[in-house]
Sequence to fold (292 residues):
Amino acid sequence: MDPLDPGVVSLTARNVEFDWTDTPLHWLPDEPVASHTISALNLLLPEGERWFCATYAEALPLIEDDRLREDVRGFIGQETMHAETHNVVLYDFLDTHGVDPRPFAAQAEFLMRRVLGPRPGRSAKGQRQQLVERIALIGAIEHMTAFLGDYALNSQWDDLGGDPTMIDLYRWRGAEEVEHRNVAHDVAQYFGVGYFRRNIAMIIAFVGFLVLMLRGTKYIVRQDPSLKNRGYLRIFVAWMGAMRRDALPSLAHLTWGVARYLKPSYSPEHEGSTAQAVAYLAWSPAARAAAR
Fold:
């Protein structure tokens, strides 16, 4: 047991304040593709997190466990703040640097609201089944955000000369992902998501994540005047180089992270450190700026 572990924490949304005035488009120096890959998360996350919140708001009246209801409310609060913050990055950062986020953001909205959204025309049983499917998918995605959040907290981006504001964004976000890492798994278990469905959801989530990240990276690369319009293969090769230089999580890191979820004995408790996450959230420049 970690003697620094704060134990059970109450999940609350934290106000943050970021100033993107001086953040360059290539916020990791000499790593344009890695910079764009991580920046591409901003194209996906606002709608993705709104989808999380809408799904859990739909599930909340069905949850009778008081502790879990409290955790879900805290989760919704944190994810709402994440969505709003990443949405600001689309316009105060990407748009300012000549990358128009609107077409890709519209596609993300269609995916989350129309393809993955609720199906009101179904029977009550069908709607419940589709809700559970969404809950299973969120459980898988939240596992990925937890181990990627832990990666961000321990990344080498400072040593690579990364922009402090962008690093703080992903570490603040990653710390809250580690802090609430148990919630989505607990909700999935509460709604009866079993081992088989859990693993199918992870396969879908992981493949979908890689495809969307590749598309998002190419979308930004195509609008970067300092880069030639690279094809998907060249971007993937650039990913491999960035991984070797510790600018991106390695394939081994990603694969092992997913593999842990596939274990019958899986527990999100082992993904990252609550003590480290809470300590960073107390230190985060953006959180301190908002508190002033």
Summary: Residues 32-291 form one domain. The mean pLDDT is 95.
